[in-house]
Amino acid sequence: MNKETKFDKETQIAFNDIKEKNKMIETWTKQAEEGKVFEMCSCGHFGGMSRDSHNAHEPNIQAGHGKCKLCKCDWFTWVGFCNAEGKIEK
Ligand SMILES: [Zn+2]
Ligand SMILES: [Zn+2]
Predict the structure, then answer these.
(1) Beta partners for residue 60, in sequence order
(2) For a 10 Å CB count at each end of the chain, is N or C smaller?
(3) Whole-prediction pTM value?
(4) How far does the centroid of ligand 1 lie from the alpha carbon of residue 76, in Å?
């Protein structure tokens, strides 16, 4: 008898998604710490988990997600991962 409900399946999928996301975040965080990956804000300055030497955004909830120190940007708005020159890698 198959007791698995739709809910169980959805929960399992959601759980796998979270595990997958956490793995990705772990990889990005490691690369960010090593200065291999930076995050770009819509204002054109580094933010998010970009390393401290480059990060222009103040901490808010998470590191680099607050106000930009270099312009009037109020909130880090992620536009993409980029290299140390700010070039967004696709
Ligand atoms: Zn910004
Ligand atoms: Zn800015």
Answers:
(1) 62
(2) N
(3) 0.75
(4) 5
Radius of gyration over alpha carbons of the chain, in Å? 17
Whose tokens are 């975040």? That residue is: 25
Return d(Cα 12, Cα 6) in angstroms, integer: 10
Check: CB of residue 42 under 8 Å from CB of residue 73.
yes
Ligand nearest to the CA of 79: 1
Instruction: Give the residue from 57, 37, 32 showing the smallest Cα distance to 47.
Output: 57
Beta strands across the sheet bearing 38-41: 46-47, 38-41, 78-82
pLDDT tens figures, 2-50: 666 788 999 999 999 999 999 998 998 899 999 999 999 999 999 999 9
Residues with a beta carbon under 5 angstroms from ion ligand 1: 41, 43, 68, 73
